[in-house]
Amino acid sequence: MGKYSCGIIFFLIFLITAGLSYAENNVLSGPVDLTLEPVLSSEWAGYIQDETLYIRRFRDEPIRIASGKEAGAVITDPHILVIGKKVFVSYVERVMDNSRLLLTAVVSDKDKISREEKEISKGSTILQTHLLNDEKDRLFLIELVSGKKQEIVVYLSSNGGDTFEKIKLETDETDAILGLRPIVINNLLYLFSVFSRQEKTFVGFSAFEMPTLKLLESRVLKESGGVSFVEAVKVVDRPMLIYKSYHANRFGLEGFIKSEGLWEQFSIKDAQGMDVARMNAHVWSDGRILILYSGEERDKFKQRIYAAVSEDKGRNWAVKRIDDKEFDNTRSWLPRIAVEGDKVMVVWEDARDIRSEVMMKLSQDRGKTWLKNDTPVSDAGNYAFRPRISFAEGVFYIAWHQFRDDEKKTSDLAFMRLSWDDAVRRNSQKPDGITNEKKEALLRERVSAYWKGMVEKDLKVTYAIHDPFFRARMPFDYYSAHRGPMIYHSYSIESSRIEGNIAEIRVKVRYEVPKLTILGKDTAIPPKEIVTEDTYLFIDGTWFRKFIDAMSGGSAIEY
Amino acid sequence: MRKKFVLFYAVIICSVFIIGSLTVARADTLLFPVIAVNSPNVTTIISVMNEAATSSASYMRYIYRVKDSIVSDAPNITGGCTSVAFTRPTYYHDLVSFDASGVMNGGNALFGDSDPYGGGFGIGLTGAKRAYLLVSHSSSTGARVDVASPSVLVGEAIIMDIMFGAAWGYKAINDTVRQDYTFDIANLSGAAMQYGANNFRGFNFFPMNEWSTRFFVTPIGSDMDSANLEGLVRLSTSLHVLNRTGLEFIFTPPEISPKCTAAIDLRDLMDSTTKSAVETTGGYSRFCVQSGGTQPDNPVIGYKLEYVVNNPTYGGTNNSGYLFTNTWAMP
Asked: Domain check: are A146 and A207 in the same one?
């Protein structure tokens, strides 16, 4: 065997093991119902496939929790909570106005799986549910139900979910509770809410004392405009409420924190004027708060990723943009965070490469500084969206949805596990880029090829230059049969402008329509020159003409 | 005595002339609220039927109020319009169809219409344009002419994509009382909506990751031949956006001020949190006309357009538009 043969064999072995390693750290489940975002807690992911709710741990086969078909219902609002070896899964079986709230407790120990199911409530219209625990491992299942009046009901278990006590909470008069976030601190259940009263919207809270959940305190914190989301965070032993506000025609992020019996208001100044899509927070035991959020300013820039840090319980915030893209003509949004000690891993949905992918960013010092590169963790060939992240037993877990192909019709749940060291290694590998000069030259080449094809009526060429999302939906036969009656005679590229992976091209073309039948009558368009403006997208290493429907402005891809 | 007689008749004759000159010149006027052109793909075919007796008016005045569809790579919502106007002859039962882009048949009357109109009917501008069109009875110099009835002009428009064959259309709006360039919501048989009672229209929308939903909105009011009327629209603050299981997503809807005429994407009417929540499900909301802005409370006429790229689930490519501000199917 020659020396080259050995080298080839070793190379092949390397390729196979690398591939296996990738496969070992990624699993797919599906097709899933993509209207429900992935659910992830610890090392367990949840998803709905074929109207059935499943959970799975990374290495193991999926566990079926409930079938909507068998129940004659739709499964909605699933939550997963892991306490020790027990995995609690709550969900709603929705049947118009007669829903059931159910809880399944799964214990998966080596090869043995045991489960216990409980019907928690039935017969009402359940608007929202929450599943949480406290430091004493008491389990809280909270439902907001509608009827003549909205009610909040807590199902409390102090024995690991064996039995539950139903407690209807005393609440102030409101017209409607629009958003609810619970948190348990020092034997008090805080319910932060957005509610309406006499046609005004407020943020406020109620505090209930354990174990009877007797109302201890209830207060309106502020009247606010439309509040898109509220989040509750525990800062050492203090409850904090953060919400997206709207005042004087400007969005903002503000909140309240309990301090010495008073509620102190704060706002994140650098988020003022920004339309924040979503936020995610982590608090360390010394009170350091890290919030990740994505925000945009209309007509200025699309969603970007920001990290806001406070070390004085929210009074002051240091905000830093952490995504590293050159142009803001694509969105980076919906960040999620997981933490191991000082190490922070953030993932978000990113469209800078047009086909959305899950991007990762790392900090080794609690968000003070961030490693330079934004690292894709999903496969570049699959449109990936709505990532979640968690940390358990030394490993980070990331789950997201990804379409199987560019038709974007069928999606799977992608589930990945990643050690910190692997993440850092990935982060250090910057992918080979293309120089601006080469990119511009390639663009002109592609635009010329397209218009040459239009002049020569080479539809195979012009079809192939259309963006892959359009081609995934539009077969060549349909495309070629609907080319319209135009005959193109010549073209010249007038100007081009490239910003990241999006280019705008102006091309002067000469065309005519010798015969056109409209409403049963023949007419014609004599030869004339026009300037067209096209958008090209840099995808998979080359440029594609973006299909844009001329009447509606719609296309097959959003970014 | 004779002097008094002459003076008396002089006064009468003068009075007749004075009264005659105080009579407001009126003409029946049609409004085509949505015109879209973008050669070579998109055009709007306009058809106008004149049912006014010849003795009343021998000409029609065509006034396009037009603007660029896109400015700085973004839809031109708040930009004003300029006028492109011309006068063409007409007669009783004259039917004329033409391409607003001016491309087909050079902008002249279509379908073998041999009438000597003396010119084309197109906008005469290149590039992607958005406009509305007013058509009114006039003299040869373009001044409005009195006709017997306020409802003798009838019009239709079809907006077409010549390349793919998609099309949607509408009937032109005619004020049933007025004949000038002012359109009063009270006289439009429920085609428009305004701030006040019933200032909203409910609508469904499909998943935004697949479908595009747009609203073509034209504010109406006084002097539409020259004024850049503004409206103020947004989504509902009482119902906000609902998904398909009745879950309501609360947010403060942005207020948009369409000027002259505009195409507003549904995405621009929501905040980013709501968009992310209903992107894959679609849902329901209400389109509302508000009070305020820099102008009085102008009513609006609006059409909703929905589009999906060839998706076999929906039978292929779909491009559907309809008048949604009408009162017939409230809310």
From this structure: no
Distances (CA, A) of A108 to A26, A84, A113, A131, B326: 21, 11, 4, 20, 59
Question: Distance between CA atoms of A30 and A410, rounded to whole angstroms?
Answer: 9
Is residue A189 located within the same domain as residue A134? Answer: no
Task: Name the A residues in 222-241 with CB < 8 Å from any B CB.
Answer: 225-229
DSSP symbols for A428-492: H-PPP---HHHHHHHHHHHHHHHHHHHHHT-HHHHHHTB-HHHHHHS-HHHHHHT--S-EEEEEE
What one-character DSSP code corresponds to residue A211?
Answer: T
The CA–CA distances, whole Å, from A419 to A232, A338, A392, A400 equal 29, 12, 10, 17
Q: Which domain holds residue A244?
A: 169-267
Considering only the beta carbons, identify the residue of B97, B162, B251 that sits closest to A484: B162
Strand A289-297 vs strand A275-283: parallel, antiparallel, or unpaired? Answer: antiparallel
Q: Is residue A488 part of a domain?
A: yes
Q: Which chain A residues have a beta carbon less than 8 Å from that of B214?
A: 552-553
How many CB atoms sit inside 10 A of residue B200's CB? Answer: 20
Residue A401 amino acid letter? H
Contact B104 A523 (CB under 8 A): yes
Please say whether the beta carbons of B132 and B303 come within 8 A: no
Does A252 lie in the same domain as A230?
yes
Point out the least confidently predicted range of A486-495, B5-14, B200-209. Answer: B5-14
Q: What is the ipTM of this complex?
A: 0.90
Residue in A153, A152, A67, A166 with CA at minimum distance from that of residue A117: A67
CATH number of the domain enclosing A497: 3.10.450.50
Do the beta carbons of residue A406 and residue A385 sit within 8 Å?
no
Q: What is the pLDDT of residue A167?
A: 94
Residue among A34, A469, A554 minimizing CB distance to B212 = A554
Distance between CA B307 and CA B212 in Å, rounded? 5
| B82 beta partners | B66
Tell me which H or E stretch contains A460. helix A459-464
- Which residues of A fall within a CB distance of 8 Å from B275? 277
* Domain total of chain A: 3
Q: Where are the domains of chain B?
A: 26-181, 190-331
Confidence of residue B291 (pLDDT cuts 50, 70, 90): confident
At B12, is the pLDDT very low, low, confident or very high (cuts 50, 70, 90)? Answer: very low
Could you say which of A212, A244, A267 is where a domain stops? A267
The Cα–Cα gap between A83 and A103 comes to 14
Residue of B34, B114, B273 best to disrupt the A interface, most CBs of A under 10 A: B273
Q: Does A525 touch chain B (CB under 8 A)?
A: yes
Q: Are A366 and A338 in contact (CB under 8 A)?
A: no
Q: Classify domain B190-331 at the CATH class level.
A: mainly beta
In this structure, is residue A422 part of a structural domain?
Answer: no
Examine the domain organization and report whether A52 and A142 are in the same domain: yes
Same domain, yes or no: A34 and A126: yes
pTM given for the model: 0.90
**What is the rounded distance in angstroms from the CA atom of residue A177 to the CA atom of residue A152?**
9
Would you say residue A331 lies in a domain?
Answer: no
On whether any CB of chain B is under 8 Å from the CB of A530, the answer is yes
Residue A357 lies in a domain: no
